[in-house]
Here is the input.
Amino acid sequence: MTRILLGIALGVAAPLAQGAEADTQQIVRGGTQASTAGPAEYFTGKVRVDPLFAADAGIPASAAYVTFDAGARSAWHTHPAGQRLVVVSGVGLTQQWGKPVQEIRPGDVVVCPPGVKHWHGASASSAMTHLAVSGTMDGKTVHWMEKVSDDAYNAR
Here is the structure.
């Protein structure tokens, strides 16, 4: 479960209900899945992950709402099958390796191609929530790397 939770989408949905048919529509009620804290090994600052759904044979992607407190951010990482982020609230920052830090706001969609090294998080003065949808390849959604330094985070 921990490996799945660290996948940014970081999502683990409830398994198919006991006795449910695989070809039957399911509803996983909002608020029925436990939030988790983003592990200090992969995040700087306070981060909350609210899982929505896990990858399965039907859709090889997982999703979660990820909320970063002001100043919080992910470590550098890549996604073997790519990732899409949709900013829901607040003001965030993201950076692709070797490129400038960019500000992101509600309604912005960040397309992270497979294998591209990047980070994302909240601005220094505002919390930020995004919907993270991460593709899965060979059972993996993310490859974690080094933490983002304060100098890199504050560079603009």
Summary: The two ends are 36 Å apart (CA to CA). The chain has two helices and 13 strands.
